[in-house]
Structures are given as structure tokens and as C-alpha cells.
Amino acid sequence: MNTLASPRIAFIGGGNMAQALMTGLQQRAFPMQQITVIDPDTGKHAQLQSALGVRTSQALSAEVLDAEIIVLAVKPQQLKLVAESLAPYLQSQLIISVAAGIRTSDLSRWLNDYKTLIRTMPNTPAQIQAGVTGVFALPGVSEVQRQLTDHVLQAVGDVVWLTEETQLDAVTAISGSGPAYVFLLIEALTDAGVALGLDKSQALQLSIATFKGASLLAAASSTPVATLREQVTSKGGTTEQGLLSLNQHHIHAIMQHAAQQAANRAKTLGDELGGQ
């Protein structure tokens, strides 16, 4: 068995993010029998087995944790108890945490000073395999284990490796919280369309398609986004007037302030959660 292509994976927690990762792996023809989901909610088991073809377990055991990768996909408030229960079973497994806000120093402490840890910050578009995940690894993680992490996380979108764990607060503010900013902008553009005489369904369709198309164009083009913006902005034209209004209302400062507030809150939550 090529463990790089088909590692054994144990997911602790079978919620939305775990299911998004497993769905992405399934779509990449990953051998799903290599995956075990450990979740005390037995009501989920039959659905996970039938929809994804994974094995399930209600509790931790040496057998179900005999894997190359263990993904911690529980709520942050539950992670300390889960980690303390997991610690006796650890040997050389790679631990990947998708629990928001929990720092590796705290997780390592709860795992009896275990160091083969990776902390991630995914975002909700992972649910349709269009997400982006910020990733930080402790020095004890090998190059092969980094490749395994890429293999798993790329199933739900792009992966951005970080050199400092503190950068995850910025990732939280930009891509973690970012989908909500985009949804708010779609709402605002839709409302503007309605105010200009469109019905709401028309305005919403135009707004979503515009965000989708502009994002796809930016992703597909080697042209800087500022240049793409300039290409839409004819001198004396309609777009120029709209952008002038946005700049007069300090759109860049508004976004920077929003991101800073989100990053500050991410740091505070890390302090609070780590103090459990």
C-alpha cells in the first residue's frame, strides 16, 4: 500500500468539516475503507457508512487509531477532553487539528507533550471543495507528513503553508472570516440593485454571478488584480464613478479595520481556549 497516496486516516468527529474533507477525498477516488470516523453520536454512523463508505466507531481504541493520520475535527470547547483521552494511544501518528483557535502549544500540552502536530484554519467553501486552508506545522513534522497533509487538505481546496503560528490569526481574519465579508457584499450589492429598480431575484443573480465571475477571472489570470480593476474602469465612465464613491468612503480602511478586529478576536479566543 502506498501510504502517501492512501494513508490510513482516523477522524475524531464526524461533523461538517470532517464530512467536507471526506467528500473531497471520495471525489479524488481515495480508498474510503482506509478512513475510520470516531463519533459518539451513533445516529451519524449509518449515514457516513452509506454515503462515504467509511468505517465508524463510537469510541477511541488502539485498533481504530492505528493510522498514519488522526484528524481532530471536534469543537474547540471539546478538544481538551478529547486530547486527554487520545494521548495514551499516540505513537507516531500525525495529528491534524481543524479546531479553530486552539494553539499547538496548548494541544501539545493536553497530549502529554506530543509534538507531531499540524494546526489548520479551513473555511466554509471547503463544503463544496472550493476552500482555502492555512496550515502550520511544528518542527517535529516530517517532510513526508507534510506531503500527506497536502494530500488530505487539497481535497477541499487550496493550501497555504505558514512559517509562524501567529499568522493563523491573520488567516482567520482573511480567509476564515472572509466568506462572511463576501456574503455581506453580495447582500449589499443586491440591495443596491433593488433600489435601482431590479427585483430581488434578478439583483441576487447578477450579484452572485458577478462575484463568481470576477473571482474566477482573477484566479485564472496572471494579470494583477489591480490591473484587472483598471481594465474595467474607463475614464469618465460608470465604473469610475462607483469606485470614486467607494474610495471616498474609505473602502480599504474599512476592510483593514474589519480584518484587524477579527484577528484581535482570534488571538483573544486562543488565549481563552488555551486556558481551559
From TrEMBL:
Gene Ontology MF terms in the entry: pyrroline-5-carboxylate reductase activity
Domain Pyrroline-5-carboxylate reductase dimerisation positions: 165-269
Top-tier EC class: oxidoreductase
Q: Which reaction does it catalyse?
A: L-proline + NAD(+) = (S)-1-pyrroline-5-carboxylate + NADH + 2 H(+); L-proline + NADP(+) = (S)-1-pyrroline-5-carboxylate + NADPH + 2 H(+)
Compartments annotated for it: namely: Cytoplasm
Q: Which InterPro entries does the record match to this protein?
A: 6-PGluconate_DH-like_C_sf (IPR008927), NAD(P)-bd_dom_sf (IPR036291), P5C_Rdtase_cat_N (IPR028939), P5CR-like_CS (IPR053790), P5CR_dimer (IPR029036), Pyrroline-COOH_reductase (IPR000304)
Q: What keywords would UniProt list here?
A: Amino-acid biosynthesis, Cytoplasm, NADP, Oxidoreductase, Proline biosynthesis
Q: Name one GO biological process term.
A: L-proline biosynthetic process
Q: Which domain of life is it from?
A: Bacteria
Q: What is this protein called?
A: Pyrroline-5-carboxylate reductase
Origin organism of this chain? Methylophilus rhizosphaerae
